Amino acid sequence: MLTWFSLRNWWWAASTRTGLSKTTPTACSLAVAERRRLLIAPDRLGSGPEVQLSPEEQHYLRRVLRLRCGDVVDVIDGCGHLWGAELREPHRLQLAAEPTMADGRDGVELGLAIALIRRGIDDVMRMACELGVDRIQPLQCDRCVPQAELKPDRWESILREAVEQCERLWMPELHAVTAFEPWLGSLEARVVAGVTRVDEEVPPLRQWLDDHPQPSGTTWLLVGPEGGWSSREATVMERNAVTPVQLGSTILRSSTAAVAGVVDLVRWREGQLNS
Q1: Contact yes or no for 242/92 (Cβ under 8 A)
Q2: ∠ CA 6-11-14 to the nearest 5 degrees?
Q3: Between 2.40.240.20, 3.30.365.10, 3.10.450.50, 3.40.50.2300, what CATH number should domain 37-102 receive?
Q4: Fold entry, domain 109-274
Q5: What confidence tens digit (pLDDT) does each residue in 6-53 have?
Q6: 136-148: pLDDT as tens digits
Q7: Using CB atoms within 10 A as the burial measure, which of 37, 237, 244, 265 is most buried?
Q8: Per DSSP, what are the bridge partners of residue 204?
């Protein structure tokens, strides 16, 4: 069993061989200081190299990240660009002259359309962003409960934080809450429907994706409320050529189904891009 004393003796022996200080194991840090990211809207980045920070951004940089004047941070615009930046004053950043990273969107865009659910949609928003979803559409469905979460401002904040944390360059597009039927009727894209029930006649999402070539436009995953799709909504989906799929051999909560389905979509997209 390793003890503090054995670890200390190992450190002293290693430091003797390498010439490192013998003071304490913490004298040598294996962690590399990471450059934290700050998401700033594109319209605030086009007027010159200096960026005025909002009170919330000042609090984040100074109080949360503990940055001081002269420290550096990466700035992203949510549209595929990243700049190095220096904190010149508590309220001002100095951007590099040109972006240090630029990333175009992948050819296949992924969308998650999820019914308003009572609990868990905040986590769904965050994890969908981290996994790489491009569009998120909250839906009002027949069986949505009155107490369902409806917090668009909070969702926007969650997505911003997730983009900064997971180091993606594109901010997912969060659409306004809308009713299921008119949204589906106006959609010009290939659509799949995620279901939380087990049905032997319905193919698994992963199998259905593997059997279909790369589409144009956005591929959407539809996830209904905890009570499932109503018979009226099932008719609407059939009329709009939505393919029902299943996500496993067990019944899933809507929040679980959303994340599981997004994982399958992202894996499928990576396979399409690498083929």
Answers
A1: no
A2: 125
A3: 2.40.240.20
A4: Alpha/beta knot (3.40.1280)
A5: 433 433 344 444 343 333 333 333 333 467 899 999 989 877 789 999
A6: 999 999 999 776 6
A7: 265
A8: 246
Q: What stretch of H or E contains 239?
A: helix 231-239
Q: What angle do CA 185, 191, 196 make, to 5 degrees?
A: 105
Strand partners, 170: 79
Give the whole-angstrom CA distance, residue 93 versus residue 271: 39
Enter the tokens of residue 148.
């369902």
Query: What is the rounded radius of gyration, in angstroms, for the C-alpha atoms of the chain?
Result: 24
- Residue 90 token pair: 């508590």
Of 110, 136, 274, 108, the C-alpha closest to 192 is: 110
For residues 208 and 4, which has the higher predicted lDDT (pLDDT)? 208
Which pTM was predicted?
0.82
Residue 136, classed as helix, strand or coil, is strand
| Residue whose structure tokens are 């659509």 | 191
Distance CA(99)–CA(75), nearest Å, equals: 9
Distance CA 55, CA 58 (A): 5
Give CA–CA dist 178/186, Å, rounded. Answer: 12
- pLDDT grade for 201, boundaries at 50, 70 and 90: confident
Nearest of 227, 215, 196 to residue 265 by alpha carbon = 215
Write the CA distances from 81 to 77, 122, 226, 250, integer angstroms: 6, 26, 38, 41
